Amino acid sequence: MVPYAFKYARAKSLDDAVAQLKTSPDAKVLAGGQTLIAAMKLRLANPSELIDISGIKELSFIRRQDGALVIGAGTRHSDVAASADVARTIPALSTLAGVIGDPAVRHMGTLGGSVANNDPAADYPAAVLGLGASVKTNKRTIGPDVFFTGMFSTVLEDGEIVSEVSFPIPERAAYKKFPNPASRYALVGVFVAKFKSAVRVAVTGAGPCVFRVPQMEAALVKDFSPDAVAKIAVPSDGLNSDIHGSAEYRAHLITVMAKRAVVDALL
Amino acid sequence: MAVVSMTVNGKAVSAETEDRTLLVYFLREQLRLTGTHIGCDTSQCGACVVHVDGRAVKSCSMFAVQAEGANILTIEGLAKDGKLHPVQEAFRDNHGLQCGFCTPGMIMTAVDMIRRKPKLDRQTIRHELEGNICRCTGYHNIVSAIEDAAKRMSAGA
Prior knowledge:
The complex is a heterodimer. Chain A has twelve helices and 14 strands. Chain A is of the alpha+beta class. Chain B is α+β, with helices and mostly antiparallel strands. Chain B has two domains: 2-77, Ubiquitin-like (UB roll) (Roll); 86-156, DNA polymerase, domain 1 (Orthogonal Bundle). A five-stranded mixed β-sheet of chain B has the order 2-1-5-3-4, sandwiched between helices. The chains are: A alpha+beta, B alpha+beta.
């Protein structure tokens, strides 16, 4: 399939992309394109203009900074998965980046694109919410608990582009995903992160938008063990129900994957 | 319309194309390099995998204009001086294909996989093949071919 016609422009820098967005308010930003181009081929998306930010070097980096791991929005999944710095500081993030889609998709897809798109079954939103990461844009820095607002929606405004994500480095963390065998999207994915005095549990794939499970977090603060979450059932109300699995099945999987994530985090 | 220039299999090429032209159509229809296949409309099958600046990507999931200035390697560029690439040899020797439709993508994925992970076991190969579908379900021999190719290449290196 061929997408509807559009006008393509390449941005040289973040400032250039922002300036181009100002003059073309209907334009869409093209990062790795592994979701957007697929949607355009099926003509589910038909932007009149694309501003390509994939070649912007300043958006692709991984660095340590004040107890956090800061990753540029243009960093490819394969680069995060292969980074020794990520493996040393937040191995759960290497694991997560290494199970997104397939190798060819990981060579193109970017952190910023995944976070800004906020697909209900995408992996990165679980890491952002689970690690309590902050998302920096050309305008501001946005906290993890307010960034994702619903299915395919975030607090990002028109003309706002994600530039980097700062992931606090936890004591322990793990991501466990039950992938849909066809699409490799998460049927349910659970990210568990243990910090000095707090634990965060974030779930992707199960609901219309990534969410936390406070009951599990409270239990894990007291006792960080798989047994602590084994008996916590998450209500199926509002969870996704489709040909791939019922809401009840997904609810059950949350507990199973949370347990497995805690086991992995303790390794 | 825009003129895009890139290097394909070591040769500089330049052609006028629509902004919406996917790289795979550019390769197949404008450059007549039909070894790169199209097996689906949903970016899932991997028959169109080529290397862009050394990385395996699905040429159905990027636009030709995005490849401006890039170095592209397709299945046609693998054999050198009439001699097959070791991965191609291994696919032939291990009967790593049935109908052959998915083979170009399988081989381009395999070359990339061996570059990144010279030591491969069968399970890793299967995981790495997640983005390539063989509709004949001939995976067993494809995995054997890649395993064999990785061994030959590390022995030769």
